[in-house]
Write a structure and sequence with these properties.
The structure is a homodimer. Chain A is an all-alpha fold. In chain A, about 75% of the residues lie in helices and about 0% in strands. In chain A, helix 5 packs parallel to helix 8. The N terminus of chain A is likely disordered. At the A-B interface, helix 6, helix 7, helix 8, helix 9 and helix 10 of A face helix 6, helix 7, helix 8, helix 9 and helix 10 of B.
DNA sequence: GTCTATATGGCGATAGAC
DNA sequence: GTCTATCGCCATATAGAC
């Protein structure tokens, strides 16, 4: 295969992924048809199959792309400063990044497909959750040396993520609303004091 | 309609619901066919349509049944005793009840269908989550009068539910495992002290 | 490799007898 | 109301020309 052909091949594959990603995010796996993806990507249906084998192959490629590129949480650099301010900044960033239409759709998708595509949540945990837990745990260990910082980091991240899932994905805003600030404030108070 | 006919009607409807429930739980909405439900319930496909109109009607009936009867969380009687023991008991009960194959499948289902069937998560919040939050909030208000007990209750329940979702539904056991006891112990310490 | 056209099967929903 | 048999559609996947 010449360099030019390979380049064209990659371009086509990326063109397909770019077209398929919003379709899977918006409609989920079962409700997204290969016809629809072909149309959205601007290629013929057969081209999808030559590049990705079948629908599952295309979906798995999409999941890897999402976990590795699109939905990286927070930053990877270590946290610095006073605990109260550091935790507040981290909470704000995390809430802002997760409370985004595409990210919420991503979470819905990996939960919905956690049985039939078990690799998808694993990619999510490895590339998105684990790094966030790691930098928070390492920071806490420098400031709360006698406590179980790994468990506390889980509680911190878990309470925030659950808040978003409940309010946004489960439509909790309409049933059991609560101000985000109260969750953040009390969570920080519990941990710092 | 005579009493006998009505009784037969109800029996048939319940027979259908009983057959359809495990199918929807195990395979989700899109992957469950009306043929499969008819077979599982031991009735003809036409009978499904006579009683519930269409697939959506049957699914909504299933959701109501699950939220109202099958997945009631914890108990509704007020909590009593010392905070540390009360919180520990509540955590254990909540974890045990949520970490059940059917309950996990129920959570997966309402998240997966939260867009196309937005009533399903609302039923879940009203019948399952809200009562649990209520009794915990009322208990905390008797023992921690100066604190924002509603927010703390959300943090408590949220951290536990998120732990189960991450470990069980997202297969976190294999990627980022942690002992449940550490989550419970540290959560209680944060709140009580 | 990429296209147009097609094969094949399963789906939700219905018709008509009883 | 309940059954058997069937319709019409859309899904995934493939065939064959270029």
């Amino acid at each position: 295969m010449s360099k030019t052909q390979k380049q064209q091949h990659l371009d086509k594959a990326e063109q397909i992924l770019a077209g398929a990603l919003p379709e899977f995010l918006q409609h989920g796996y079962a409700r997204t048809s290969m016809d629809r993806i072909a149309s959205a990507a601007g290629v013929s249906k057969q081209t999808l199959y030559t590049h990705f084998g079948d629908k599952d192959g295309l979906f798995n490629a999409i999941l890897k792309q999402m976990a590795r590129e699109k939905f990286q949480l927070v930053c990877s650099k270590p946290l610095e400063g006073e605990p109260e301010q550091v935790l507040r900044d981290l909470a704000q960033r995390l809430l802002k990044e997760v409370n985004d239409p595409d990210h919420l759709a991503f979470v819905r998708l990996i939960v919905a497909e956690s049985v039939n595509h078990p690799e998808s949540p694993k990619l999510f945990l490895i590339h998105v959750v684990q790094p966030a837990l790691k930098i928070l745990t390492e920071y806490l260990e420098q400031h709360q040396k006698l406590k179980d910082c790994e468990a506390i980091a889980r509680i911190f991240v878990g309470a925030l993520i659950h808040h978003i899932i409940t309010q946004e994905i489960l439509h909790g805003k309409e049933i059991i609303p609560i101000e985000e600030e109260r969750i953040v404030d009390n969570l920080i108070k519990l941990i710092v004091h």
